[in-house]
Amino acid sequence: MGKSACKSTNKCQNVEIDQTLFKFLPPGAKFFHFPKMLIIQYFHLQRSVSPSLFDATKTDTGPNPPNIEACLNSKPLTELSPDPSDFNALTPAHFLVGGPIHQFPEPSQPSRSVGLYERWNLIQRIRQYFWDHWSTEYLHRLQPRSKWWRTKPNLELGDMVIVEKEQTAPLNWTLGRINKLFFEPDQTVRVVCVNTKYGQLTRNVNKIYPLPNSQEI
Hints:
By secondary structure, this protein is of the alpha+beta class. The chain has helices spanning 2-5, 9-18, 36-48, 65-72, 92-97, 116-142; strands at residues 78-79, 89-90, 160-163, 175-183, 189-196, 199-204, 208-210.
């Protein structure tokens, strides 16, 4: 809004009533207070559409931003409800379209790649490349490992988590809830059993990424 918005008397009155406080970035510091995940998204987007990955003469329509946007809006933020049998997570898509974004099964591609098929395959490769790198980066942000050794609290029963898999299709996150803990002699949990819609999975805690609850956001 800024000064241009204040030219309108009604808008100025609304700003004053709402007690809106504007905070501006210092000159030449566009990274200041900039969300870290947005920087990561731009980084992987630039790498996924690098000229080395495709022929620029065949990408006149761009790298299909809606597909990339769908990946970004599918990331789990927190549990949708405290129900232990509910494996759904709140995502940015809930605020945009009122629910999660679903990925339809892709048809098998023919052996030959010409014309529109070649273009479609290129878009799919770009999206898959972006998804593989960005989703891995997001998971690592959920489970930061500090430089210095320190004790972290154990995972708890009923925690909403993401289970890491070596390869997943875009927009698909393996969500579940912890239903069993395996304690070591020092009372540290290093293995957990997670109940998912695909069944029960037993994983090391290094492959488990807990989602923040509603009180932590």
